[in-house]
UniProtKB/TrEMBL annotation:
Residues 164-227 form the PPIase FKBP-type domain. Belongs to the FKBP-type PPIase family. Tig subfamily. Its EC number is 5.2.1.8. This is Trigger factor. The gene is tig. The keyword Isomerase applies. Keywords: Cell cycle, Cell division, Chaperone, Cytoplasm, Isomerase, Rotamase. InterPro entries: PPIase_dom_sf, PPIase_FKBP_dom, Trig_fac, Trigger_fac_C, Trigger_fac_C_sf, Trigger_fac_ribosome-bd_bac, Trigger_fac_ribosome-bd_sf, Trigger_fact/SurA_dom_sf.
């Protein structure tokens, strides 16, 4: 095998790999044997038909394709070892000569992992900022508890619409004086302040009285899903039929008992404060840890290949599409309703993708410098945590991970977590 290396643009390398004809012929013969065991040739037991008949049956190109697909990756991996190249992203291949009786020649455009020069990553000085919990925040939280227990009661006939009220109304929309399709509703339920309608619509209903028509003037957003109405002025003639006000329960000991295992208002306030202070402490700890990883990432010296960022962007988009599908929405629908397109999305993700790639390169370099290893016990602990999260048995989760070929990805995740812990644990006091 002969390997020729040529530098290309964007930190890529083109490897031209040449395999002697005699070695290539052996690969073709092995491909013929594999195919012979998969097809039926009249007059021959499976696997016993001669090569000539196999080639006639499936075609010479099929035989050559089979040989290349099985043999190509093997010699490519040998070429990577020979050139001491560690791949950053999946390569691009091009067949140059793939014929019987000739040397096999193909090219691989690869992106080697960049060299990372570590900066300071141990003993970093990151201030821990714990937010003070104020009396106002405690009171606001308790008000939210009361709000959850609130009931909606009918307002008197002379009442006026107020924020947070639940109303039913009739409405009819007009653009340029003409009623438009889909712009009419009868006894439509609407929570004022919910943001269910076009911006500005609900605000203009505040102060409206039952049975009295009110004109609401709005402008449809430019990105409105109904293109005929987008960026158009509209007038809605609205009549409120019914108003329900929100009535909060009294803040007393009975209320406290209804929302907790506590007995008095003072106990509730103390409990809320303690929980908020604990949450603030946890938030500060997490933010300090994230800042440490960010600082260590900024301290490295590296030139990130564009292909690594492009690859991470595509990965983020695939993950987003999967999340949307789990929620019952197709990716194309999301792009349509959000007024975006795939290229805009790529640009939006690029900065985050580059930051993530930089962080991964830093963690990998630190792990190598510190000689960190992922042990079987580490994998088992990770699987046990996953099992607890999904309410399954660790053995079941491990079997699924193995069947899906994800043990390698799991090991990478564990290594990154171990490395991040090392950085965070070494923070200066």
């Amino acid at each position: 095998m002969k390997v020729t290396k040529e530098n290309a643009d964007n930190q890529q390398v083109v490897l031209t790999i040449e395999v002697p004809a005699e070695d290539w012929e052996k690969a073709i013969n092995q491909a013929v044997k594999r195919i012979a065991n998969q097809v039926n040739i009249p007059g021959f037991r499976r696997g016993k038909a001669p090569r000539r008949l196999i080639e006639q049956h499936v075609g010479k190109e099929t035989v050559l394709d089979e040989a290349y697909e099985q043999y190509g990756p093997k010699v490519f991996n040998e070429a990577l070892k020979e050139e001491n190249i560690e791949l950053a992203v999946y390569p691009q291949f091009e067949r140059v000569t793939c014929e019987e009786g000739k040397d096999l020649v193909f090219k691989a455009t690869v992106t080697p992992k960049p060299e990372v020069k570590l900066g300071e990553y141990k003993g970093l000085k990151i201030e821990k900022k714990v937010e003070e919990v104020t009396d106002e925040q405690v009171e606001k939280h308790i008000e939210q508890l009361r709000d959850r227990k609130a009931t909606m009661v009918d307002a008197p006939a002379d009442a006026k619409v107020a924020d947070k009220d639940l109303i039913t109304l009739d409405f009819k929309g007009f653009v340029d004086g003409e009623a438009f399709e889909g712009g009419e509703g009868k006894d439509y339920p609407l929570q004022i302040g919910s943001g269910s309608f076009i911006p500005g619509f609900e605000d203009q209903l505040i102060g409206a009285e039952i049975g009295k028509e009110v004109e609401v003037k709005v402008r449809f957003p430019e990105e409105y899903h109904e293109k005929k109405l987008a960026d158009k002025d509209a007038v809605f003639k609205c009549t409120v039929n019914k108003i329900k006000h929100k009535e909060l329960p009294a803040l007393d000991d009975d209320f406290v008992k209804s929302v907790s295992a506590l007995k008095t208002v003072d106990e509730l306030k103390k409990d809320v404060r303690e929980k908020m202070e604990k949450a603030a402490e946890t938030k500060a700890t997490n933010e300090r840890s994230a800042a440490a990883i960010e600082q260590a990432s900024q301290n490295i010296t590296v030139t990130i290949p564009p292909a690594m960022v492009d690859d991470r962007v595509e990965q983020m988009i695939r993950e987003m599409a999967m999340r949307l599908e789990q929620q019952g929405m197709q990716f194309e629908q999301y792009l349509k309703y959000s007024g975006s397109d795939i290229n805009k999305l790529r640009e939006e993700y690029r900065e985050t993708a580059e930051k993530n790639v930089r962080t991964d390169l830093m963690l990998e370099a630190v792990a190598k410098a510190e000689g960190l290893k992922v042990e079987a016990a580490d994998i088992d602990a990770e699987i046990a945590m996953m099992a607890q999260m999904y309410g399954a048995q660790p053995a079941q989760v491990k079997k699924i991970v193995q069947q899906q070929g994800r043990l390698g990805d799991l090991a990478v995740t564990v290594m990154r977590r171990k490395t991040a812990k090392l950085i965070v644990d070494s923070l200066a006091d």
